[in-house]
Amino acid sequence: MKTELKRYSVEQVVEGFFYNELEGKGVYGLGGKLVIQQEYQRNYIYNDGKKDVAVIDSMLSNYPLGLIYFVDAGDQLEVLDGQQRITSIGRFVTGKFAIVRDGNEQTFSSLPTDQQKKITETELLVYVCNGTESEIKDWFQTINIAGVPLNEQELRNAIYSGPFVTAAKAEFSNSNNVFQQKWAAFVRGDPKRQGVLEVALEWIASSKNQTIEAYMAEHRHDAGIAELKTYFNTVIDWIGNVFTASPDKTMRGLEWGRLYETYKGTSYSSVDIDADLQTLLGDPVVGSKKGIYEYLLGGKADTKLLNVRLFDSNTKQVAYKKQTEKAKVEDISNCPLCAVGDNANKTRTYKIGDMEADHVAAWSSGGESTIENCQMLCVSHNRAKGNR
Ligand SMILES: [Zn+2]
Q1: Residues lining ligand 1 (ion), CB within 5 A?
Q2: Nearest by Cα to 13 from 59, 74, 62
Q3: pLDDT at 39
Q4: How confident is the model at residue 147 (pLDDT cuts 50, 70, 90)?
Q5: Judging by beta carbons within 10 Å of its beta carbon (0-12, 13-18, 19+), is residue 243 exposed, middle or buried?
Q6: Which DSSP string do the residues of 10-36 spell out, in sequence order?
Q7: pLDDT > 70 fraction of the chain, expressed in percent and rounded
Q8: DSSP calls for 156-200
Q9: Residue 337 Cα, ligand 1 centroid: separation in angstroms?
């Protein structure tokens, strides 16, 4: 790979700059010769009123902006690293945001002429690189340690860039997509940082026992994303059909792809599901609200999912003392299940540390975590009874 150090003024770089609000991208510079945002690069994330302002303040204060990298693609140059900085400059020069100078809000056009000139005459140091696609992508991963590092899905988009990634990003990474709000009830992640796309890919790939990488490699040159989109919507619709109440915040970020694959063949009464769901969400002994969904999908069998808060230590001590005193009088084991059996432990007195608290009336059938409903069992009997 060949590299050459060049200098471009801000005026040259932002010539013909155009910012696409809908896609969150700055597109062209250098009078059309420079492609600012390639499909493998992330959407513009500097527009937070801090990073974009800092870029402009740096130029006005003569601070260095750091190295920028372009790729020589024959008739065009493409920005490999630096698109966030260039987009910030382009947006400022075209009046998209203001900065504060000496207590006053200033847009580019309201700045004094000398300060405007300071910006347009700022020289950007640019390495222009010439190499094969894989050389450039390897290198891109290496230089990207500066600034905001790419996350895993952004890197995958870089590595498997092509028409499939472009179409997938148009659907899942556009925060203006009207469905984003609906998806956000179930999917955690920032669409701009590829969080929603990552979940969509994870679901379809897992359903085929593939990794995200394998799925992306296989579909890299596909023109469309029909399968990905259909599967994602199928899972989302399934959630909404099973849990018909307005989504609770605990539904966000669950492994819905796995739950769909496991439980899609079961039919549910949405009335019963909703009634149980509201009860469990409001029950203070349920330690894991996120576990409620799989617990209900699985027919309320696996109470471990709920991480039910068991008896407190005071209740356990009272129950232990009462049982043990009674057992001594009757000369039987203080584990009531050992006592009724015909075994070596029939008269054994367990220490409190060798016993566990059990709900006499099962918690899942409405039994409460009170002293009246608490009995201490030896560990093996309690485990045999199951986690209730
Ligand atoms: Zn026992």
Answers
A1: 335, 337-338, 378, 381
A2: 59
A3: 54
A4: low
A5: buried
A6: HHHHTTT--EETTTTEE-EEGGGTEE-
A7: 94
A8: HHHHT-SHHHHHHHHHHS-TT-TTHHHHHTT--S-GGGTHHHHHH
A9: 5
Q: Which two tokens stand for residue 202?
A: 């994870």
Distance between CA 163 and CA 208 in Å, rounded? 22
C-alpha of residue 306 to centroid of ligand 1, in Å = 26
How far away, in angstroms, is 187 Cα from ligand 1 center?
Answer: 45
CA of 324 to the centre of ligand 1 (A): 13
Taking CB atoms within 8 Å and a gap of at least 24, the contacts of 332-340 are: 333/378, 334/376, 335/376, 335/377, 335/378, 335/381, 336/375, 336/377, 337/377, 337/378, 337/381, 338/378, 338/381
- As given in the structure block, the two tokens for residue 75 are 């008739």
What pTM did the predictor assign?
0.59
The yes-or-no verdict on residue 388 having pLDDT over 50 is no
Measured in Å, residue 330 CA sits from the centre of ligand 1 at 16
Cα(152) to ligand 1 centroid in Å equals 51
Contact 96, 86 (CB under 8 A): no
Pull the structure tokens for residue 319: 């129950």
Give 359 Cα–ligand 1 centroid separation in angstroms. 15
Tens-place pLDDT, residues 189-199: 999 899 999 99
Bridge partners, residue 31, by sequence:
none
User: Is pLDDT of 205 > 80?
Assistant: yes
Phi-psi label, residue 99: left if phi above 0, alpha if psi -120 to 50, beta otherwise:
beta
Residue 322 CA to ligand 1 center (angstroms) comes to 16
